[in-house]
Amino acid sequence: MRIKYSDIPLFLSALLPSLASASGFDCAHINTDGYKYDLSPLKGVHEVYHVEETEQYVTNTSYVLNICNILKGSAIRGDAKCGTSKNICGFVHRNAKDGHGSSTFGFPIVGLDHLGHGSKDPEVTRLKKIDADREGLLVKLAGGEYREDFDKGKTKNAGATIEFKCDPDRSGLEGLHTTLEDPDPAKRLRRRAGNSTQGDDANAGDRSLQFKSFGQDGDSYVLKLDWRTRYACDDYQRTKGSGGSGHWGFFTWLIIIAFLLTAAYLIFGSWLNYSRYGARGWDLLPHSDIIRDIPYIFQDWLRHVINTLQGTGTGSRGGYSAV
């Protein structure tokens, strides 16, 4: 089959999600040091932002991320674009305090882009290997680029370091800003540019995902984030597997097996009675006499229980009667 040139963009848009899921970082199946982690409950497009104020400018940077898939349309905000095949993008809006001039641009931080610059190189480490008192995962991702001087176009590699910290009381979604909050994300980005740094940090303690820093680390620019979640706990998957749902699964299979064995016994016994003795009706069933007597046996047992209870209540006087 020959693909038309006009169909290439449509073909690529359908292919990119599958490429992202097939890349080196599978958020649902993380195996390291004999432990298994599933971060897929944190999937979706999320946002964290940081406001920096100088004498001349208020600079708001929104970091948009999806650790389990590419950003697709969320990587485009008006004229600011960073590439739909990316997993983490930064969008900068710089507003002059005197009201004269502003600029907005986007840049990729983490992504999969086999057709051009960069590739996603995941590095996953348990925090206990770094510090025995800490529990969670340290995930390092690459594949982006940052322009040191946006006007001159000088670029350096960019990446992200995310500390997924074990917190049994948090799902990891508490206080997150998502791209669905406002139908016009570019407008929201400009609005946040007017916020103060105090407004940015006012509810920082309530958010599971928190901005730490963005800056040069060696030859690259690195975005550092903290993400508190129960899904980063070493024993969460093991405890989850041995919880109530696991016990219920065992008993469910036990009931199913018992039912199948009983059904097989009745079917085989009925066939045997029919083929050997030509039995019909109730006589087909094995031990049919006992089965027919079950209602009467149950009635006798129930009557015996009632009489026993009544005898216990009225026999407390020891059998003596007044003369």
Automatic annotation (TrEMBL):
GO terms for biological process: autophagy; protein transport. SUPFAM superfamilies: Mannose 6-phosphate receptor domain. It comes from the Eukaryota. InterPro entries: Autophagy-rel_prot_27, Man6P_isomerase_rcpt-bd_dom_sf, MRH_dom. Keywords: Autophagy, Cytoplasmic vesicle, Disulfide bond, Golgi apparatus, Membrane, Mitochondrion, Protein transport, Signal, Transmembrane, Transmembrane helix, Transport. The chain crosses the membrane at residues 248-268. Pfam families: ATG27. Belongs to the ATG27 family. This is Autophagy-related protein 27. It comes from Penicillium alfredii.
